[in-house]
From TrEMBL, chain A:
Gene3D superfamilies assigned: P-loop containing nucleotide triphosphate hydrolases (3.40.50.300)
InterPro entries in UniProt: AAA+_ATPase, ABC_branched_ATPase_LivF/BraG, ABC_transporter-like_ATP-bd, ABC_transporter-like_CS, BCAA_Transport_ATP-bd_LivF, P-loop_NTPase
Start and end residues of each ABC transporter domain: 8-240
Domain of life: Bacteria
GO MF term set: ATP binding
Family (UniProt): Belongs to the ABC transporter superfamily.
Listed Pfam families: ABC_tran
The keyword Transcription appears for this protein: no
Keyword Transport attached: yes
Protein name: ABC transporter ATP-binding protein
From TrEMBL, chain B:
Organism annotation: Uliginosibacterium aquaticum
Record localization: Cell membrane
KW Hydrolase (keyword) present: no
Name recorded for this polypeptide: Branched-chain amino acid ABC transporter permease
Protein topology in the membrane: Multi-pass membrane protein
Protein's UniProt keywords contain Membrane: yes
Signal peptide from the UniProt entry: none
PANTHER family for the chain: BRANCHED-CHAIN AMINO ACID TRANSPORT SYSTEM PERMEASE PROTEIN LIVH, HIGH-AFFINITY BRANCHED-CHAIN AMINO ACID TRANSPORT SYSTEM PERMEASE PROTEIN LIVH
Length: 241, 333
């Protein structure tokens, strides 16, 4: 249940693309410091939900509350200033900007120069492969490197809540491992994360709680281990008969 | 040889004016994918506002020197055009941001007509002579090659403006946000960029450059007119396409190349199409007589110089639609 400690709360949120109802009234919340994951099949409405939370997609009805405020009507760029960062599906790298410029775009709203440099150094230490490619145009990076830049960029805004949309999609297992290492590190430091993942096994293993979406509704909720051991989840999303 | 050098000088001057205007087209295209056909008319407004201010200052403060007069006029013209650029974006284009691409394009043509008609109502249909505040006595750096002080000022100030713009776009936080927005509005807004503000800023910068170009144009040719924006607008658009639309360096290169081709072409077009070069069997009796008396019969005079811009536009669109410096449009995964 939502408490004072709740950072994000969705109340009966409905989202439609024209006539097509993609999300049909969902309620869920994320508490401060939690890693919550949202799993479900393709087309269940997971990405739509994240886009609506980030402000790049309007909601039809319901309410999105962030850190105690109703942000349902706030434009995306102001939601970032409130402490909400999204790493979008497909990474959303600025391909014509250099890696360093991409990272600095993450700190666009900040003017604390010294702290920005420190945060950049932190990102480099977490993602050493990024540091080797700072002057390179980001479009020439591999998919895994781009994902790391996208995550590093989001961290540079110093978000309270980080929204991650399919960070493991299309990446080699070693890279996925590295990315989940970074996710764990920032959670340990107290950041809250809402993670959308196709790789449900991996996501549930690290998540404190999870929600299962199906056909625009939340059909199941529970702790990571509960969902991992739920026979219905295992057969539908974890590839077991 | 003098002809060639002289045409190069002329070409560089007119080319740098084209380049300033082309930058406005290419910046707006880069960020919105819109050809702002009203851009040439912003140049016209800049020239006519500057003219109005000069006339006022000459009457009210006759003792004010030429340089302060021109600087004040330029500042006012830039301010008016920056406001105009903002208003155009805010009222005409912003609400069409998500409309099919044809809608803003047609709107741009409509805005162009609107500006011309308003200017015609305010300033009338006559050609106004633009006071020559700076001496027009040409200097002669090389025997037989002339350059006026106005032309020198045009060359130097456009070089400075273009350098400033390149630094702004490539080295500042605003420039980075402009490039990010140009590439992906949605992701830029996820970085906390107010993309509406960035787009408005782009229009404002482009309009300021157009105002400067308008004042340069009028100072160089000594006239201002409500429809004067049309031809330079179209040529600057050609220059932007030639260089690779959406690419700042391309707009600069395209402007200068177009100016040079046009000027050098015009310099030789007359004698190249002189029918006296034809073998005598192909000449009529009267033509032979004219030529023998040292005359000429030029099929195309230098008045046809405008065809070069559009011939170039045609060739570029057929053989290299992405322009000289344009990149192939591809986004790697």
């Amino acid at each position: 249940m939502p408490t004072d400690n709740t950072i994000l709360e969705l109340k009966d949120v409905q989202i439609a693309y024209g006539q097509i109802q993609a999300v049909k009234g969902i309620d869920f919340h994320v508490s401060t410091g939690e890693l919550v994951c949202l799993i479900g099949a393709n087309g269940a409405g997971k990405t739509t939900t994240l886009n609506a939370i980030s402000g790049t997609l309007p909601i039809k009805s319901g309410e999105i509350r962030f850190a105690g405020q109703d942000i349902s009507k706030l434009p995306a760029h102001l939601r970032l200033r409130q402490g909400l960062a999204l790493v979008p599906e497909g990474r959303g790298i600025f391909t014509r900007l250099t890696v360093e410029e991409n990272l600095r775009m993450g700190a666009y709203t900040r003017d604390d120069k010294e702290a920005i440099e420190q945060d950049l150094e932190r990102v480099y230490s977490m993602l050493p492969r990024v540091k080797e490619r700072l002057a390179q145009v980001a479009g020439t990076l591999s998919g895994g490197e781009q994902q790391m830049v996208a995550i590093g960029r989001a961290l540079l805004s110093r978000p309270k809540l980080l929204l991650l949309d399919e960070p493991s999609m299309g990446l080699a297992p070693l890279v996925v491992e590295k990315i989940f290492e970074v996710i764990q590190t920032v959670v340990k430091e107290g950041m809250s994360i809402l993670l959308v993942e196709q790789n449900a096994n991996l996501a549930l293993e690290f998540a404190s709680r999870g929600y299962v979406m199906d056909g625009g509704r939340i059909t199941l909720a529970g702790s990571g281990s509960e969902l991992l051991n739920d026979p219905a989840v295992r057969s539908a999303y974890l590839g077991e008969a | 040889m003098e002809t060639l050098l002289q045409q190069i000088v002329n070409g560089l001057v007119v080319g740098s004016v084209y380049a300033l205007v082309a930058l406005g087209y290419t910046m707006v295209y880069g960020i919105l994918g819109l050809i702002n056909f009203a851009h040439g008319d912003v140049l016209m407004v800049g020239a006519l506002v500057a003219l109005q201010v000069v006339l006022f200052l000459q009457k009210a403060f006759p003792l004010l020197g030429a340089v302060p007069t021109l600087l004040i006029a330029l500042t006012v013209a830039m301010a008016v055009c920056m406001a105009l650029g903002y208003i155009i974006e805010r009222t005409a284009y912003r609400r069409l941001r998500n409309a099919p691409r044809l809608a803003p394009l047609i709107t741009a043509i409509g805005v162009s007509f609107l500006l011309q008609t308003l200017a015609m109502i305010i300033w009338g249909r006559n050609y106004h002579s633009f006071p020559q505040l700076i001496t027009t006595t040409p200097l002669q750096p090389v025997e037989g090659v002339f350059i006026t002080p106005v032309q020198i000022i045009i060359l130097v100030s456009s070089a400075l403006l273009m350098t400033g713009l390149i630094l702004l776009v490539n080295k500042t936080r605003l420039g980075r946000a402009m490039r990010a927005t140009a590439e992906n509005h949605r992701v830029a807004s996820l970085m906390g960029v107010d993309t509406n503000k960035i787009i408005a800023t782009t229009f404002i910068i482009g309009s300021a450059l157009a105002a400067v170009a308008g004042v340069m144009f009028s100072s160089n040719y000594g006239v201002a007119h409500y429809a004067m924006g049309f031809t330079p607008g179209l040529k600057a658009f050609t220059a932007a396409v030639l260089g690779g639309i959406g690419n700042l360096g391309g707009a600069m290169v395209g402007g200068v190349v177009l100016g040079l081709v046009e000027s050098i072409g015009a310099g030789y077009l007359g004698s190249a199409t002189d029918l006296c070069h034809l073998p005598s069997w192909a000449q009529s009796a009267s033509l032979i007589e004219t030529c023998a008396n040292g005359g000429s019969f030029e099929l195309l005079s230098s008045n046809y110089q405008d065809i070069f811009a559009f011939v170039i536009l045609g060739i570029v669109l057929i053989f290299r639609p992405t322009g000289l410096l344009g990149e192939r449009v591809s986004d790697r995964a």
